[in-house]
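[User] I wish I could look at a protein chain and see how it folds. I have put the entry right below:
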Amino acid sequence: MEELGTMIGEAVRHTPVGVEKKVWLVFSRAGKLRPYRCGSMNIKPGDAVVAYTEKGLELGLVVKGPVMMREVEPHIPAIERIATQEDRELWKENQRLAKEAGAFCEEKIRERGLPMKLVDVGYTLDRAKVIFYFSAEGRVDFRALVRDLAKRLRTRIEMRQIGIRDEAKKLGGIGPCGREICCSKFIREFEPVSIRMAKDQYLILNPSKISGLCGRLMCCLCFEYDTYKEAGGRFPRVGERVVTLDGHEGEVVSVNIVGEKVLLSLGNAKGQLSVPLSQIVRRQKGGRSEKEEHKKRFSKTTKRKEAH
């Protein structure tokens, strides 16, 4: 009996307690994925639910899950309920009210001459708070504006200053490629983009060509950067002197990674020559080319064999 009691105790001790399911929600288009506990609710991707966020009570959309939580995660909030028809109608009404609040806010901004641009307006589902998103070059004293809004809307007012990339994400638009900008369509979180990414992809460093609607470097520079960086390791650097299997020698002017070609400047008014990568022979340290180095090693090996 004691052994049986010990076995039962061990089994209970190693059995997960409070194992639940969780799903991932978004509360805006291309918004961040947020994990939420769903308990015993029978929900699936595409369902609308009501949950609390740092803004307040909001209507969210299930986009992933449910999956079993392997251990208790108390920091993950729980979904309040599956959205009802009343919740959906309330959300639609809030969208209408947000437009009216935005028009009134823009009018007051013009009247007071404030150096700010209203980007978006959003009500929480229970209308306990309305949030005004704006962009500005510096700090703005909007205390008088908040008083005007509170007097008109009769609810809690929150002003949030956002950056230029977030502004583009909220407003949307068509990019230089002719398609809807990525941040507004599917990018959920911004990644750092540097000019090095453009250089490693051998793009023309023209600000108008590599900048998005926000005026910053385009997010799509990240998409193929790792591939270009890996493939670029097989190519000679711009400015490097190389020779071809046909005996031409020149300086690398540009590299076409997709076409696997290298453009050489032959010098002495000989013009330029586009050569496939497979025809390029790079020089090793000491000034010798790969071909010359191979001949030298072959010659040494032959002499050793003859000596033996």
In short: The chain has four domains: 17-83, 89-162, 169-229, 236-308. The two ends are 83 Å apart (CA to CA). Residues 1-17, 286-291, 293-298 have pLDDT under 50 and may be disordered. The chain has nine helices and 13 strands.
